[in-house]
Amino acid sequence: xxxxxxxxxxxxxxxxxxxxxFRAGMTGVRLNLSHVxxxxxxxxxxxxxxxxxxxxxxxxxxxDMQGPELRVGALPAPLTLAEGTAxxxxxxxxxxxxxxxxxxxxxxxxxxxxxILLRVLEQxxxxxxxxxxxGGVLQSRKSAALTGVRAPMPAMTEMDRANIRAAKSFGVTGxxxxxxxxxxxxxxxRQALDRAGGSxxxxxxxxxxxxxxxxxxxxxxxxxxxVIARGDLGNSGPLWKLPALQKHIAAACRGARKPFMVxxxxxxxxxxxxxxxRAEVSDIFNAVLDGASSVMVTGExxxxxxxxxxxxxxxxxxxxAEAFRREGRDPQGNPAL
Length: 337
Fold this sequence. Notes:
The protein has helices spanning 15-23, 42-55, 158-167, 183-195, 210-214, 216-219, 230-233, 242-256, 278-289, 299-302, 307-327, and strands at residues 3-7, 28-32, 60-64, 79-81, 86-89, 108-111, 116-124, 127-134, 136-138, 144-146, 174-177, 202-207, 225-229, 260-263, 294-296. By secondary structure, it is α/β, with parallel strands linked by helices. It has two domains: 3-69 and 155-327, Phosphoenolpyruvate-binding domains (TIM Barrel), CATH 3.20.20; 79-146, M1 Pyruvate Kinase, Domain 3. The strands form three sheets. An eight-stranded parallel barrel has the order 1-2-3-11-12-13-14-15, surrounded by four helices. Helix 9 (278-289) packs across helix 11 (307-327).
């Protein structure tokens, strides 16, 4: 059966809303631990389990770890980056020390899932000076990506390891490892789970860069499920190439009989609208026809204005696609696939 995932956040942290989401078709929830630890989210998790008990379901709880992801450091206040202006990387925009040697002239830097684009003008002892090519308002701890560069980062942070040790006691059923680069990343997480008594916790490999795509054949046996994480994957090259990458990963998973999930902006308009766009429901439908075993929304339920409605549209569209795929023919009697 297809899994329908929402994401925990301020918009759906109370038991009543989560109960309504389960009744609308949600089967599991993602908890983003990029910014906080599992212990700090204990109240949210308890509301989740309370809502599930009211509905008589056992929820799937996925924790999305920090992993080898570059992020902006803490900012004293949101930083407005205007197009055409210059900004100091390492000072105005704090970055992990490991990235500083890679800030050579011409290097491009994507911030906040690609919403903001910078290009390095000159390297300095304490960082670099960069031009803002695509502006926006930057918040603390947003994602950062150096185009075409792999900065050396460990597979897991200390917070990740602490979250894995606590996972079993919180009812976690799956761990999402972001920015998987090679099989070694997954094996390291699997070993940590086994040591923590979580051998039954499923391991989800998030494919978010071209390195992960390149190593996909070796990742398939080491993961329980593959995640086509289109946010950062779309930053790894020209955006118009993303659909082909999605199709390639889906085909590889089908060939290996490996379950896969599709995520990112499936119902992005529903952060502000009670009704999705036609393109969004078509995206969900086609992901299921491609063989997805699960689909997920993130900001739509975490911070959106219509979390219950988003789950309802996600679930109903996915179930319609399942029925279409199962019947094998369209309404005119032609083969569906």
